[in-house]
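Hello Y.,

Per our agreement to keep a running log of every chain we model this quarter, I'm adding this entry. I've kept the format consistent with earlier entries: sequence first, then predicted structure.
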Amino acid sequence: MSIYADLQKRYESHETALHTQLHLLSKAAGDLAAGFGKYLGLPGERWNHPDGKVGERYVRLGEGSVDSFQEKRWIELSSSKGKVDFSIAITLVSEDRDSRTTYIFSMGVQFCEDGYLFEVQGHGVSLAIEAVKAGVFDPVYMLIVDRLVARLDPSSILIKN
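Predicted structure for the entry above:
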């Protein structure tokens, strides 16, 4: 085998490994987003406008921040240096459906010694491979909910009367 043929074979193996890594990490991000609504106990997959028109999904997977969030399917996510960065958008709707707010959580997932490492706005949670395969993301969900509860804490609002 020539040196070039050996390099070509190594290149193909390397590309296959990168593709497999991207597939597994992106799928984990997609599964995380797909199961979050059930964890939250949402009334449905989508919220409705006051006139009954169907709105967006309560939980959406994508990329970007509040100003630039773009919904994406998990197969559309990309990776850089072994990590898939993504965002989860959660929409809270008032009971009368007159107001709603969407909160964006910047996240990432990569492989670690224990399996998968999920980052939620700079805080990491590792999950075993078996947990991810089984769709058990509760520790990650708890971290997201804790962050959201802290943002919604009315005691953080200064009121002088």
